Amino acid sequence: MKRLRAFTPYLRLSTNPLFVTESRYALRGETAQKLVSYTWQCLLTVFGMVLFAWAMLALLNVSEDVLILFIAVLAGFSLLMALALDFNSMTAALGSISGEIAAKHWDLLRLTSLSSEQIALAKHGIAQIRTWRLTIFLMTLRAAASLSIVLTFALLLYRSRPLNLFAAIDVVLLGFGYGWVILFIMAVYIVEPYWRMHAITALAIAISARTKTPALSLWAAVAALLAFWLAQGVISALLAAEFYVLFGQLIQFDQPTIQMSACAPLIFLGLSLGIIYGFYAVVQSWSLHHAEDWIAQIS
Predict the structure, then answer these.
(1) Per-domain residue ranges of the chain
(2) Element (H, E) at 31
């Protein structure tokens, strides 16, 4: 429970007076205990439903096409939820500064001893609270889909028995050599919504501090999301190219060199983690830094 609480904004902002005050009035009156409790409930519920549905299909001995369709449906629904998370993350923070100005509360807030950094971090933390439930739901859904892929692969191997001895040896060797690469891809796939939520909420804080009016903030938010998705598309293309360059021989069933077999997974893991996490970290850091500067300039 305590370790999970560390991922919420409560631990980092427990001494921020603005965050402490506004968190009392956040959506559904959220507290750290409620967020942690919801996280466990979501894990148990979503995993239970998905695994029950998969088990029923497996027991009914459906074809592999049906199992693949089941995974495709989960992936498609996950994509829709990812788009919903992007919109929710943006709207949760879009009125954080401009809304205060429109409601004539900004002058009162500036009369306090809070610095621009404290205001930006508090507003960012409140936005994370408002998007926490959808973020956790999406992460759990992706985790359940990833587990379904592993179970489906194992079931298809079981159905293909008796497995050729040499084919079985190849599967085992591939599992030891590249299985952890697949696990890494799944782990990043599961955690990615958490990183993206932090980046988009920070971007919304910066937009709200810069535009000051709700109407202008909305147009800026739409443009920012389009640019964000375009950047994600470029990153996905880079990762796909990286994967093909490093594992193209394996995909084409060619015999890779010993050096490439040993180095390719490490190169792929390092570059992929650097590109994905680095992109979200840069967006978040840049947004909060500029939000602090723009907040300081508001009279």
Answers:
(1) 2-297
(2) none
